[in-house]
Structure prediction request, 287 residues.
Amino acid sequence: MSDARYAWTRTKNAVTPVRTMTGQPEPSDRRRTSPDPHRAQDFIVDVRAQLRRQGFAWVEGHRVARYVDLSGMAALIAATSTAPMDPYDPTRTRRRFHGRFVFEPGAGLLHHRGPVAYHQDRRYNPVDGGGSRWLPPLPAALACNPTLQSMIRLDWWCLPAPFRRSVAPMPVDVGVHLIAYSPTVTAPSRPSPAVLHKDGEPFTCVHHLGSRNVSGGESQVADNSKVMLFEQPLSARLETLLFEDERVYHGLKPVYAEGVGPASRVVTLVDFTPFFQPHARARPRWP
Ligand SMILES: [Fe+2]
Prediction:
């Protein structure tokens, strides 16, 4: 993988210098981030190596849990499980909050942006893309949730160093989707789109928070020829999948209700997009 693909520039009035990305010391973005990236060094190195080698990384939940503040986990799951229905889901089996943050890597600060429309190009999502989707906004109280915030920061540190270094001088757009798939006996719950696809955001991290009375729901990752590389449900708490959008497709198979009682599968998606357009994005490398 060439580091040059992480060189960014402004789309107008090109004034942003391209940073060098050849083993230079990390910029000052180590200062205020939590968890401490030094403490999580082995974990982070492993995730980055997986990302570099195969375009995605899978991590066991107990390993992620070591570096996430778990004090807000119960509140996060409870709030997501009772979130409003996704208005774009005709089956009424998908609950959802959508939030966006501005992340300042240098200062390690996360700023919640309040209600923001979700944009997805139609080429990425032929079902619901091509316009603005107004999804139930992430409540301010949840935006401050310590579990959510520590997941975002950990995810950031797991991204490839060349990408982070190229982005670090500028703020980063962080998208958060809290989703509860709530199938019924007669209606499985599906993502949007319910096929292998790309999202258009450079990196996305999927954290499984909890499931009860469900089956199916296998997470999928395929290479750019759509040859399947990974297909299994995330089942342990905080079991995590990270992927680089340009290098792989991803998907989720339908989630089915099973057994007695309410069925749900709760996940958090965290994506990172620089506010400045990368050169590489103008030349997509997938078919
Ligand atoms: Fe997606």
